[in-house]
Amino acid sequence: MNANKPSRRFDSRLIQKPRQQPRLQRTAWGFVTIAFWAFYFYLWAPVLTLMSWLVGGRLAWVQLYERKQQLDPFLVIALPVLLIGCAALLIVWAEYNRFRFSGKERRAPRIDVAHAEIARDLGATDALARQLAGAKAVTLHMDDDARPVGMTEQVLTQPAFR
């Protein structure tokens, strides 16, 4: 690496670990994001209105709901019943599938690969392949030909997931 040229391995403008930002800052930027998305959808509203008018949305509204300034009793009753029926059907189908597939392994079992085969594919020694198999988090040391020659095991001090 050239001594005059700085390393560009880390770009400070990118947030690498957003959970380490203060909660107030994350929340504030979340609201800013929501506001800009709302403004974006607001800008699309005239196009959606035009498309609705072109395909007869206004005529459908008038025919279904505003005809002679009264609501059709059938629609007032039928639409909520259809809504509840569809929701109930979806819940029943989900529960049926949960009952049908719970407690059953649907995936084929994994076949373990021998350490010698892993070492051969990586271009490493058998001893290094056995060390890698027993480690959780490692830093792999590579030679100039990108073959692993060693490793440093890292100690995990905090849970990986929160």
From TrEMBL:
Chain segments annotated as transmembrane: 28-54, 74-96
GO biological process: cell adhesion involved in single-species biofilm formation
Pfam families: PgaD
Keywords carried by this UniProt record: Membrane, Transmembrane, Transmembrane helix
Domain of life, source organism: Bacteria
Name this protein carries in UniProt: Poly-beta-1,6-N-acetyl-D-glucosamine biosynthesis protein PgaD
Organism expressing this protein natively: Stenotrophomonas lacuserhaii
Gene field: pgaD
